[in-house]
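Subject: Sanity check before I submit

Could someone independently write out the structure tokens for this chain? I want to compare against mine line by line before I put it in a report. The sequence has 318 residues.
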Amino acid sequence: MAAPLDLDQVQTFLAIADSGSFTRAADEVHRTQSAVSMQMRRLEERIGKPLFAKDGRTNRLTEDGERLLAYARRLIRLNRETLAAFDDSSLEGQIRIGTPDDYADRFLPEIMGRFVRSNPRVELSVICEPTTNLADLIRRGQLDIALVTQCDDARVGEVVRREPLLWVTSASHMVHEEPVLPLAVGRPSCAWRRAATEVLTAQGREYRILFTSWSAQVVIAAVLGGLAVSVLPECALRPGMRVLGEAEGFIPLPDVQIGIMRGHTTRPEIVDALARHIAESLDNISVPPTEAVPGFDAEALAFARARRQKQRQLAPSW
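---
Independent answer below. Compare away.
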């Protein structure tokens, strides 16, 4: 039987992968640089593959290192969850979390699963409302934490994910070619609705609001039914949708910034723990495998992703 992996080595491997430096990783795991190097040599011997390659002053992962990365995160996460399950001093109590229904559908399964396994004594109370409503509930002390869209009504304390906001239509219909563009969007206070209508107005393109709803499912149904065009973040894409790009006359929209709002609470330690799980979960969730779905405009989606990557590279490091 093969010997198990050393979790200390796995933890150090993750520190190097995340920091890109043996020196910074040594500070993080409280070891000397030579001890870190020795750990990685032993891990490479155990795996039987080289995990790092020098790239100037940094250490980048090899192809085998990239393969190990996902397993390493799961190992460390499971280790934490196991210890928490047997920790008599673990967190307990109740916490109220709010999120729009489109984020709930895509993100909550991962967030709730991770958090509940690590904190089995904490009761989660979940409220699904639009961002503007959630911001108001936070201000009134009726929510402890909310996952929201960064907008005028919700000045988030921490942005945990960025995604392109995309023009979407049905893959089976040509409603986007109508002379007066029918739209399915949120209420007038919706930031995505404002972004779409401002772009269309600036283009001089005629449109009409055909469907208005706070519910993402209603908007998605209107799009899939070939009744209207809408704007959705990448996480909300569904089979049967088509992403529209500049080739069809739809210019890029601002990115969606997803962040955390915190309320005043008597249990800040639970809020801190949940916020950490949210950030880790959203960082770990990949985008939907939409390129493989018939009807998707892969070129338009690839363009949106490239634009997002370029904006990240140009953004100030602070």
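---
OP: Matches mine. For the report I'm noting this point. The CA atoms of residues 185 and 193 lie 6 Å apart.
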